[in-house]
Design a protein that fits this description.
The protein has 206 residues and is of the alpha/beta class. The protein is built from eight helices and seven strands; from the N terminus they run ααααββαββαββαβα. The strands form two sheets. Strands 1, 2, 3 and 4 form a four-stranded mixed beta sheet that branches. Strands 5-6-7 form a three-stranded mixed beta sheet. β2, α5 and β3 form a beta-alpha-beta unit. The protein is globular.
Length: 206
């Protein structure tokens, strides 16, 4: 079985086992296939990907059981136990609730709550953001040093949010340069960690 096939199997099994009755609008077969293609380009083991996806499913279950409206407006991405919440809601209470529900899931190490509180936004804006996300994928895959992609990204009202792991500062700067050149990206908020820095810290004597 190819790595891509294994990843698709993990994603599909997780959804079917976890929250099929409450699938958010953005979890379509096409979206799954797109996510699988990106994940398959990662350096990580499939088991680690499955662990993160299990947390994502658990977060969606929390939304489904305790605040179903969040499934419509909030997206959750998980990388090595770190959760990035994105989307747009009209009430601060919803933004805080989403963060609290995500934090309650076992295995979650950190929450980046990037949910926008705004009255703006329309179906047209959402469609534009989804198109921008696809363009970002092409921009990253088009870079020579990004045949391996260890990032997740979401676009909300023109702002691109990034989470993941860069090999070094140069790779991160190249990635940021690539996405800032994408039509539709007005600004970037990144939560990307640097692998070299973390390795250097762990190698220091205690």
């Amino acid at each position: 079985m190819s790595r891509t096939s294994a990843v698709i199997l993990v994603l599909t099994a997780g959804l079917l086992a976890g929250c099929t009755p409450y699938l958010p609008w953005w979890t379509t077969p096409a979206q799954l296939a797109g996510d699988a293609a990106v994940i398959a380009a990662e350096e990580r083991q499939v088991g680690e990907v499955a662990e993160d996806f299990g947390m994502k499913v658990a977060i969606l279950q929390e939304f489904a059981l305790k605040a179903q409206s969040l499934l419509l407006w909030v997206r959750a991405d998980v990388y090595q136990g770190e959760v990035m919440l994105t989307g747009a809601v009209k009430e601060e209470e919803d933004e805080k609730k989403a963060g609290a529900l995500a934090k309650s899931v076992d295995g979650v190490r950190r929450i980046y709550n990037d949910i926008q509180i705004t009255e703006d936004g329309s179906i047209h804006d959402t469609a534009r953001d989804l198109t921008t996300e696809y363009k970002v994928q092409l921009a990253l895959l088009g870079r020579v040093n990004h045949r391996v992609i260890n990032y997740r990204w979401r676009c909300v009202n023109g702002i691109l949010y990034l989470i993941g792991m860069a090999k070094n500062q140069d790779e991160l700067e190249e990635a940021l340069d690539a996405v800032l050149g994408v039509e539709g990206v007005e600004d970037v908020v990144d939560h990307v960690r640097i692998k070299e820095k973390e390795k250097g810290t762990s190698d220091k004597p205690g």
